[in-house]
Design brief:
heterodimer, A: alpha+beta, 2 domains, six-stranded mixed barrel, two-stranded antiparallel sheet, elongated, B: alpha/beta, Rossmann fold, binds adenosine-5'-triphosphate, binds magnesium ion
């Protein structure tokens, strides 16, 4: 059986060394892209989960305008019980939300009876907080891995500077909404490791203690952090939540809430973006490699076979068939490169996993890199390589198909 | 009706400033099922004429009809189409495709040009390879057979589509005498079997003698026509 495809393969086999060389170039490119995607993707995921799972959460809901003035932690922009009901309903209506944690945030003074400093505090429901940011307990360096009533988790740097130890007594003083000052004694329940990013150096107390310090007779909440059951749904859930909550208007007729994903809340989003851009540039480089190497080899193939092209054209082979003959050759070369490249790439990623490469991020040390390649990555890269191979062979193939048979036959 | 009718056929090549009149107003007719040779010194226009008849090139002036069609007017694609259906080619350098076996080379025009069904291809290719005495070598590649054998395969390839006309420009120039005769004999035998007209050009006076009708070209003009049979003399 003879067909165009077979002719293309035989022509590739004819120049084994050249075919192998071009294919290896593509293979190296594909392996490089796959490994880069896997490693950078794993690094990015780890970084993002370090941020979202240790204090930020995936999504946060505030009263409109809170994030803009978050540096002063205003008590006047809290959500009261009526408002909270609406938010709770919205959260309950979205099944993709796995957990939520209500926080009251305020600034106060911390005194250990020797020194006084200012501190940013979160009053939280401990169980909800741990469900929403599951890496939180790991940040408690000393003391119990939880928050008890009457106890405070002091941020590491404050503890160090003021020589505060677990079990010490300290006083928190805060100004409440009406402007009066109130203080309360806490036992130091634990020292909290700093996390990278805003809010990573806050202290934590139980929400009931916070209400007491602030002399609130009802629950008021500054921030609701959410955790999704699948991080991939971030955009989707964010939009859904926005849709529901933007219908809630305040007294001025403006939207009452603001919903932010972690991306808008953490400067690390920019680093994640950088990784994406680097991945994209490396993909573009792969495209360039494939384009140039295939085009080069196909131009050579056409040039070497001018007399053969003249022969088949004289015999009556239509231009379209000659075109497909050469395009198929480039296509097959691309398929070969993509196939071997993916095989080697996946093996390298597998080996990297076995090797358990560790790295440090912020104060987190010994994070194990677990690079993964998804079938989607493989599909995208393969399709990309193959399409580019076809495009690169189009020009030489077109040239071949347009050759004048007599000129081609005379060619020596 | 004649298979090839040329009237006042001219071809002028223009290279830069210089115009070369390669053919100067040729008129002749070629009947179906004939065995024709064009002879003449180098540069007399044999290749040019065969290219015109083969629809590989267009005349500068005059008319040329092949198998009833005015081929001077064909476009690129329709010329390819016409060649594929009507004309077989045999080349001086054999021009077999090196990546195809002997069998596949002969099968090529049926498959790639005429899209003939597999069963028909097989019987046709095998019977032609048998006729040219190459059936035993059908799975060899061109670089594994001799020049004479290559040209026999080329004869089979030219005939596989049952063309009305086979054109061969110097088909024996690259062969020794004995082999040259053998190839011409095979062409003649195939002409008798299939009724296909063969037109070949040659330098070789001995080989010329095998033709039924011999046209002599000189400097782009027809200088003589000799027929062996009852076709009369020029
Ligand atoms: N493509 C071309 N461009 C310009 N001049 C050409 C071209 N092809 C042929 N000629 C000229 O036309 C004339 C006839 O050439 P042609 O090749 O037809 O002769 P020929 O009889 O086949 O010669 P040979 O026996 O050497 O093959 C010659 O003078 C040649 O130089
Ligand atoms: Mg010639």
């Amino acid at each position: 059986m003879l067909n165009l495809f077979k002719i293309a393969i035989r022509n590739l086999m004819r120049y084994k060394r050249r075919t192998l060389l071009t294919a290896s170039l593509i293979v190296v490119g594909v392996v490089f892209v796959l490994v880069f995607i896997a490693v950078s993707g794993s690094f990015k995921n780890m970084m993002v989960s370090q941020i979202t799972d240790s204090f930020l959460g995936h999504i946060q809901i505030h009263k409109k305008g809170y994030v803009a003035s978050i540096d002063t932690l205003p008590l006047t922009m809290n959500m009261g019980p009526q408002t909270l009901k609406k938010v709770e309903k919205a959260i309950n209506d979205i099944p993709e939300i796995e957990a939520s944690s209500m926080r009251i945030k305020f600034g106060g003074m911390l005194s250990n009876f020797v020194e006084t400093t200012n501190v940013r505090l979160n009053g939280v429901y401990p169980e909800d907080e741990i469900m929403t940011v599951p890496l939180f307990p790991e940040r408690i360096m000393r003391g119990d891995k939880t928050i008890r009533k009457g106890e405070i988790l002091v941020p590491e740097l404050l503890a160090k500077g003021m020589k505060i130890k677990v079990g010490d007594m300290i006083v928190i003083v805060a100004t409440n909404k009406d402007g009066s000052v109130n203080g309360k004694q806490f036992k130091v329940g634990g020292i909290l490791e700093s996390a990278t990013g805003p809010g990573g150096r806050d202290g934590y107390i139980h929400i009931n203690d916070a209400l007491e310090v602030l002399r609130m007779d009802r629950v008021e909440i500054s921030e609701i952090a959410l955790r999704l059951n699948n991080f991939a749904n971030l955009e989707n859930v964010h939009n859904k939540l926005n849709d529901i909550l933007s219908k809630e208007l305040n007294k001025e007729g403006k939207p009452a809430f603001e919903v932010h994903t972690w991306e808008k809340l953490s400067p690390f989003y920019n680093i994640a973006r950088m990784i994406d851009i680097m991945t994209l540039s490396i993909k573009l480089m792969l495209i360039a490699i494939v384009l140039i190497s295939i085009m080069n080899v196909m131009i050579m193939a056409v040039y070497e076979r001018i007399r053969e092209i003249g022969t088949i054209a004289a015999i009556g082979t239509l231009p379209g068939k000659i075109l497909s003959m050469f395009v198929l050759e480039g296509f097959s070369l691309g398929v070969l490169g993509a196939l071997i490249g993916n095989l080697i790439g996946v093996s390298v990623v597998y080996i990297l996993n076995i090797a358990e490469i560790t790295f440090n991020f912020g104060r987190q040390t010994g994070l194990v890199l677990s690079p993964t390649v998804s079938p989607a990555d493989i599909a995208v890269i393969s399709i990309m390589v193959i399409i580019v191979s076809v495009l690169a062979s189009l020009q030489p193939a077109f040239k071949a198909s347009r050759m004048e048979p007599i000129k081609a036959l005379r060619h020596v | 009706m004649s298979l090839v009718i040329a009237e006042n056929l001219s071809k002028t090549y223009i290279t830069g400033e210089i115009a070369i009149d390669a053919l100067k107003g040729l008129s002749f007719e070629i009947e179906p099922a004939s065995f024709i040779s064009f002879v003449g010194p180098s540069g007399s226009g044999k290749t040019t004429l065969l290219n015109l008849i083969g629809c590989l090139d267009a005349p500068t002036s005059g008319t040329l009809k092949v198998s009833g069609a005015d081929v001077s007017l064909l476009g690129r694609k329709s010329a390819a189409d016409f060649r594929g259906k009507t004309i077989g080619f045999i080349f001086q350098d054999f021009n077999l495709l090196p990546v195809l076996t002997v069998y596949e080379n002969v099968e090529y025009p049926l498959l790639m040009v005429q899209n003939a069904p597999a069963g028909e291809r097989r019987s046709r290719v095998l019977s032609l390879l048998d006729s040219v005495g190459m059936a035993g070598q059908k799975d060899k590649y061109p670089d594994q057979i001799s020049g004479g054998q290559k040209q026999r395969v080329a004869v089979a390839r030219a005939l596989v589509t049952k063309p009305k006309l086979v054109l061969a420009d110097e088909p024996t120039a690259n062969l020794d005498h004995k082999t040259a005769y053998m190839v011409i004999d095979i062409m003649k035998k195939m002409k008798d079997e299939s009724g296909t007209t063969f037109i070949f050009s040659t330098h070789d006076q001995k080989v010329v003698g095998e033709a039924e009708t011999i046209y002599t070209l000189e400097d782009g003009e027809l200088a003589g026509r000799n027929s062996k049979g009852g076709n009369g003399h020029a």
